[in-house]
Amino acid sequence: MPESFDQNPSGAQPDPALLNPADSIEANVADPPDSPLEQGVAPDQDRPEMPGRKRTVVLSVLLVLLVLIGASFAGIVQTKGGWDRLLQGTPLAPNLTEVFGKQKLRVLVMGVDDSWTDNDEVYTSQSRSDTNVAVNIDLATKNIGVLSIPRDVWVEIPKVGHAKLNEAIADGGPERTEATLVQNFGMPAFDYYLVLKIDATKNIVDAIGGIDVDVEKSMDYDDNWGHLHIHLKKGYQHLNGEQTVGYIRFRHDPEGDFGRMRRQRQVMQILVGRLKDPMIATRVPALLSIVQKNVRTNMPPDKMLSLAFALRDLTPQMVHTAEVPTDIGFTDGQSVLYYQPQAGAQIIHKYLVVGFTGAFDPSTVRLKVENGSGKPGAATAMADYLRQKGFTVIETRNAKNFGAAKTSITGPNGTIVSLVAKQMPVTNVHTAIGPVEGGDIVIVVGKDYRIQ
């Protein structure tokens, strides 16, 4: 999976002879998100009072889900006596529609937070769900719809009354949360649920011996009340579990949640990569123990194995994310979110009912566009053109050097590079396979591009 953090590398500055102070070529700033449904995050709301202190690790549930499925997979391999014995009874490409007996599989994923007593003792009884995610997997195409439901949305919980959604699991378990979602949002019924302890990420990282991360900026933050201490320096370094969690929780900068989500994707890539390393087999006992202690699910182990095996080659373009739309409001003296039923019904139908096919979806490809031609406005014009084609442009800037004769496209996935090249307004673009920092594709606009 491509790295997912945006850093503006230092490079050559525009030639002053080409510019005057009032006419720069390209602004070296990231473009605003194109789609509030895919990029937006509701602002933090005041949480209901609970006994003791709160420790909320707001992570990407998809990150934890992928890692835990990978750990479960590795654990089952180990307990069945190795790859040879496992593969004797497991097809290399299991037919998921036959395994589950249906075309689409819907899973409700809930991340529960830790609670702290006044004596700094952690407890999890009656913990509320810090994260609620509805996952719809097309078992034929392997495309996944991920729909986040804000924890603070105001709902009617069956047998309880009106409250925030995060209270449902404490009142009646995951089944009560499912019933609440079906009743209040008209969501289809779920086939299975997974309840995750959010702190599992820390334990997983420690179990595999830590991870190597290129920390994008120096970070210093202390929250004694929330048991969170982040002290990291910019640069490539080895992080343990606690440091990794701090890195992907940090949001005390102008980017806020957007930067945090980017770092979560970055760490997810690293973790999934590590779990594919054959040497991880030596860590299987510890990983399996973490799975057993941190996951509660009603999905049978053999089906989870088939699912993990079939999704082993999942790419970012196969995962489609959105959030249930809400408005900020107040009730009973507390800040809450109110569901937007008109817009929400369309999103729920698309992500949880219709789903996504294997067709190329340009909106899932994140482009960085650089001006390598020296023509004022070239990158901006190219970015506007590609947005009209449906791509997600996350940044426009000047290239390190001007004078590029031909437009070039670079990315880690050759198929995606080729598909983007076919949508370009210039012919015979130069294509290359290579890493892209902070996105999926980088386009350097050359002199062959004529601004329309």
Question: What do these coordinates show?
Answer:
With 452 residues, the chain is α+β, with helices and mostly antiparallel strands. The chain has 2 domains: 16-31 and 361-445, 2-Layer Sandwich (Alpha-Beta Plaits); 37-354, Aminopeptidase. It is built from 13 helices and 23 strands. It has helices at residues 36-39, 61-79, 83-89, 96-100, 168-185, 200-207, 241-249, 257-275, 284-294, 301-310, 341-354, 378-388, 414-422; strands at 29-30, 53-55, 104-112, 114-116, 122-123, 129-138, 144-149, 154-157, 161-164, 192-197, 211-215, 219-223, 228-232, 235-239, 295-297, 319-323, 326-331, 334-339, 366-371, 392-398, 408-411, 430-433, 441-445. Strands 1-20-19-23-21-22 form a 6-stranded mixed β-sheet, with helices on one face. Strands 15-10-3-6-7-16 form a 6-stranded mixed β-sheet, sandwiched between helices. Helix 2 (61-79) packs across helix 10 (301-310), helix 6 crosses helix 7 and helix 6 (200-207) runs antiparallel to helix 9 (284-294). The protein starts with 28 loop residues before the first strand and ends in a 7-residue tail after the last strand. 41% of the residues are buried.
Annotate the secondary structure layout:
Layout: E1 29-30, H1 36-39, E2 53-55, H2 61-79, H3 83-89, H4 96-100, E3 104-112, E4 114-116, E5 122-123, E6 129-138, E7 144-149, E8 154-157, E9 161-164, H5 168-185, E10 192-197, H6 200-207, E11 211-215, E12 219-223, E13 228-232, E14 235-239, H7 241-249, H8 257-275, H9 284-294, E15 295-297, H10 301-310, E16 319-323, E17 326-331, E18 334-339, H11 341-354, E19 366-371, H12 378-388, E20 392-398, E21 408-411, H13 414-422, E22 430-433, E23 441-445
Parallel strand pairs: 3-10, 7-16, 19-20, 19-23, 21-22
Antiparallel strand pairs: 1-20, 2-4, 3-6, 4-5, 6-7, 8-9, 10-15, 11-14, 12-13, 17-18, 21-23
Helix pairs in contact: 2-8, 2-9, 2-10, 6-7, 6-9, 7-8
